[in-house]
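Hi P.,

Sorry for the delay on this. The queue was packed all week, but I finally got your sequence through. Input first:
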Amino acid sequence: MFYSIDGDLVVFNLKIQPNSSQNKISGIYGDGALKINIKAPAVEGAANKELINFLHKTFKVPKRSVVIKGENSKNKKVSLPMNEKIIEFLESF
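Then the structure:
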């Protein structure tokens, strides 16, 4: 499973692909990660900043509420506060 629920938070297991042509959710990767393509390179935190901005816009959550674990890895765990956009997204799988 690419996500888990922890109280009022959803925790996504992510596989990040930096240096992509566009920011997008590509689908399920392997055995339990959501693959996200990010335009920014994995240099000096640029990809993490772009990821935060992408998740903020996609799921309509405040930037400060996006918590990333695994900043130096392509495999990350990201916590977001649960909202209607996220529920709609999860129901699509």
